[in-house]
Amino acid sequence: MSAVEADVVIVGGGLVGCAAALRLRERGASVAVVEKNQLGAAASGVNFGGVRRNGRKLAELGIAARALGIWKRLPELVGSDCEYAITGNIKVARSEEHMVQIAAHAEAQAGYGVEVEMLSRNALLDRYPWLGPSAIGAAFCPSDGQANPRLVGPAFARAARAAGAELFELDGAAHVERDGNGFVVETESGRTLRGGALINSAGAWGGRLSARFGEPVEIWPMEPQMVVTEPAPYFMEPVLAVVGGDVYARQIPRGNVIFGGRSGTADLDVGFGKVHAEESLTTLARTIDIIPCVADLAVIRFWSGVEGCTPDHLPVLCPSRTTPGLVHAFGFSGHGFCLGPASGAVAAELALDGRTETPIEGLDLSRFDTAEQPAST
Length: 377
Ligand SMILES: Cc1cc2nc3c(=O)[nH]c(=O)nc-3n(C[C@H](O)[C@H](O)[C@H](O)COP(=O)(O)OP(=O)(O)OC[C@H]3O[C@@H](n4cnc5c(N)ncnc54)[C@H](O)[C@@H]3O)c2cc1C
Hints:
The chain has 377 residues and is of the alpha+beta class. It contains ten helices and 22 strands.
């Protein structure tokens, strides 16, 4: 097999890697992606599907703003809307303390262009009569929404391939090293790829790759557990999340209600998340508490996936500090589906230009030298 030569080699063909590949082709750079499994099938393909800015840590809001612009242009960019819809998001409080918390966060995020409407209990129940009595108020963000994760990563992969990117799946990067002014990647099947720059978008496995270049990141697998019901008449337009994150739910127009809130387990060497029945039952009980009519629906499936979680629950999105030409974009800590399209674009720009116009302060590795992060809600 002759070596594949590209301006940029990407390790990890999830949403971030595929979005990076598309952006690189838009910029005229040659790009090759290696994916050990199937493109877009890891965390990017099994997640809950929430696309939100409301309640995020402030350090992510610059990139979330760019992401919103990309989500709105999906048909033009990748040939499909991927069932993306702006349905709004309600962050629900179940105590006065939580109300104070979301009100404070609403004020902080308003400075970043994220507008929410604070709803009292009466206003909330008037608007969403399907909510249970434990909901005492909420922050409603009309610009948030949802999309079908099964469609998004593959759509970016197809668009990148159609634009000239080379994408290899079922062929993991087994060995990666700096070679002269660039990088060489040897894959499990014996393929060799050479690139002037390298993007590490290996998701939960990104810390393993960064460690090879002397930049270990404490990253552990997180495995949100998802539940889906049979279809029901459509009643629930916005995505719902409760403060603390122990319930989030959405209903798709076909009628199924999808919800989550607890975690399974995962082993990075095995590569998929294992569902725990008792955790799913806890999620079910908590969801019924907030959305009582879910009690009447049959659950038809449970699943989980593997995501990489960093100590401060923020992604690593930055140029390497040890290795010129290396860019890290991993560890999205359970909320990188929304950020994925923009994070890929930013990684592409960092690989080509060493810089990006998108604010990514606070997402580099220096934060692990010192800082503490403000809380999200
Ligand atoms: C169940 C669940 C629910 C979630 N819900 C939401 C949500 O509602 N909203 C939201 O914003 N986010 C959500 N997330 C998080 C979101 O899915 C992820 O943050 C996002 O998909 C990360 O994209 P990625 O491309 O970095 O990672 P991934 O999609 O995991 O892609 C990384 C890829 O790298 C590949 N790889 C790793 N090592 C190698 C190697 N050596 N060689 C080749 N390939 C390699 C992997 O196989 C994988 O395909 C959820 C995650 C899960 C698991």
